[in-house]
Design goal:
- It is a single chain.
- The chain is an alpha/beta fold.
- The protein has one domain: Alpha/Beta hydrolase fold, catalytic domain (Rossmann fold, 3-Layer(aba) Sandwich), CATH 3.40.50.1820.
- Helices cover 36% and strands 16% of the residues.
- The protein contains eleven helices and eight strands.
- It has an eight-stranded mixed β-sheet with strand order 1-2-4-3-5-6-7-8, with helices on both faces.
- Helix 2 crosses helix 3.
- The N and C termini lie far apart (47 Å).
């Protein structure tokens, strides 16, 4: 069995559900929404440490992750279910309007939250997000993916990394531990320069710390695959920043430009030379772009 990794605090919601959370930093409140779906929020400790001098960042394990209770009904794993959950947690923590920041699948949830509960979201930041698998033409997405993979296709680890992603086609007959082990060879693909010191550090850390909530992963494969949030983007009224890595093979520019064009007044930033995790490969640029945008929109 893998050792457990805990967030610092437990919260009980009015209906008795348990929520695992912790806060990092000082300043105005920021709610981080982790990706996956099904990844634990402790993976984002380095992400929020980067901005903890400006925000008090709340890491919250989503339903079924870590010590957070699973939803009472499977539909609690839906997009709407996650939006309701995070707003319940925000109110239970006594927070007013917050900056909501989501990465990857967490960016989808963050955008849905800003559209559904506009009074709760002061600002929205989406990092290498997307609007659902149905939001981009398949051919366009596959072409971008192949261009990104072409950069590392000659590496000796590449065949094993690509093969690791086949595990997502057989979630029905696998355990969380087996999913973690099978998926581990694939993590270098998330970095544009996997052999750099920063990338190697984070690949090693993610492999050590990753845990999966298999129930939510199964819910989203394939029932969530036709999600398309584009029609509701016009409801988002808060200042919005969309950040994406140039060489992201999974949620690259083709997925993120529609977020920025669909949200009135949104700012789009493409960070060159990085992949799915620009905050790890280019932390200084990620921090600068965020803070410059904050200074303009304050």
């Amino acid at each position: 069995m893998l050792p457990e990794i805990h967030l610092a605090n437990l919260l009980t919601l009015p209906d008795g559900r348990t929520v695992e959370w912790e806060a990092v930093g000082d300043g105005e409140p920021l709610l981080w929404i982790e990706g996956g779906p099904g990844l634990p929020a402790h993976l984002a400790r380095p992400d929020v440490a980067l901005i903890s001098d400006r925000f008090r960042c709340y890491l919250v394990n989503a339903p079924g992750c870590g010590r957070t209770s699973p939803p009472p009904e499977p539909n609690g794993y839906s997009l709407d279910g996650h939006v309701r959950f995070f707003d319940e947690v925000r109110r239970a923590l006594g927070l007013g309007p917050v900056t909501v920041m989501g990465h990857s699948w967490g960016g989808l949830v963050a955008a849905a939250y800003a559209a559904a509960v506009p009074d709760a979201v002061r600002r929205l930041v989406v990092i290498d997000g997307y609007l659902g698998d149905g939001s981009v033409e398949t051919a366009e997405a596959e072409a971008e993916r192949e261009r990104a993979l072409d950069r590392v296709r000659d590496r000796d680890w590449f065949p094993a990394a690509v093969a690791a992603h086949d595990v997502w086609t057989r979630l029905g007959d696998i355990t969380p531990e087996e999913l973690r082990e099978a998926d581990n060879p694939g993590w270098p693909l998330y970095f544009a320069e996997p052999e750099s010191a920063a990338s190697r550090f984070h690949v090693k850390r993610i492999r050590r710390e990753v845990r999966w909530n298999l129930e939510v992963s199964r819910f989203w494969e394939p029932p969530g695959s036709d999600t398309n949030l584009r029609p509701v983007l016009a409801r988002i009224a808060c200042p919005t920043l969309v950040v994406v890595g140039e060489h992201d093979f999974i949620c690259g520019p083709v997925w993120n430009r529609p977020i920025a064009t669909g949200i009135p007044g949104a700012t789009y930033v493409e960070i060159p030379g990085v992949g799915h995790l620009p905050q790890y490969e280019a932390p200084e640029a990620s921090r600068r772009d965020l803070f410059d945008w904050l200074d303009v929109t304050a």
